[in-house]
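Predict the structure of DUF421 domain-containing protein.
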Amino acid sequence: MELFLRGVAIYLFLLLVFRILGKRSLAETTTFDFVLLLIIGEATQQALLGNDFSVTNALVLITVLMGIDMVFSKLKGRYKKLDRLLEGTPLILVEHGKPLKGRMKEARVDTEDIMEAARLSHGLEQMKQIKYAVLERDGQISIIPSSSD
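Done. Here is the predicted structure for DUF421 domain-containing protein.
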């Protein structure tokens, strides 16, 4: 039972931490971020397993974590409010060429991030060429160019 509770606690904690960090943190993983994720993985493994490194313990723990993930997936499909809470919603960052600074700050996205997405996806060079820039649920920035271009 302790193993089950550890698995649930760690799962919920990591879900909360990555939700607080925001969408962009996972979408733009740097080399340092990758190393940090490896360290988090090691710390999580130690917290989950404690001193019991048996195969049986690992299999039970994997089953618990996958089970929790499956339950959340089913619940998110059934309850849209839970889905929006856990996964977020798309967020408009630029509207008719005007950056929405409050939303950009909230999402920890700067003008250069938006212009990079505009250049890569549409070859746009100026903010005024963007009709909408949307931070998607997966952390990517979608660009809808102005129709005048």
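Residues 55-78 form the longest helix (24 residues).
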